[in-house]
Amino acid sequence: ICGGQTLPYKKMIQEVFLAMNRPIRIFTVPLWIFRLGVRVLNLLPRYRSWNTAMAERMNQDLVFDHKEFSRDFNFQFKPFSLKEKNIS
């Protein structure tokens, strides 16, 4: 089930930082560097299960239309908001 608004991943992360009253710190790493880093980490037993799928999904458009769901179930989605919640 999706939410009430289309929100890019980067914007969602910014909202999380704001809700936690922390400075927004986001940096972008080229995927090839991330892949190399994961391969190096895979040499350590603790990180053998890590893969690049999560980073690759962050760059995919995963938006889909939910109009039929809303109509069929008479459901109104709420916008993404963390202001009401305490996330410490």
Element layout with pairings:
Blueprint (H helix, E strand, L loop, with lengths): L8 H11 L11 H11 L11 H6 L8 H7 L15
Structural class: mainly alpha
Mean pLDDT metric: 82
CA-based shape: extended
Assembly type of the shown chains? single chain
Number of helices: 4
Low-confidence residue ranges: none
Distance between the termini: 25 Å
Residue share in helix: 25-40%
Q: Write down the Rg.
A: 17 Å
Taken in chain order, the helices and strands follow as HHHH
Biggest sheet, in brief? none
Strand content: under 5%
Total number of strands: 0
3D architecture notes:
- By secondary structure, this protein is mainly alpha-helical.
- It is 40% helix and 0% strand.
- It is extended, with a radius of gyration of 17 Å.
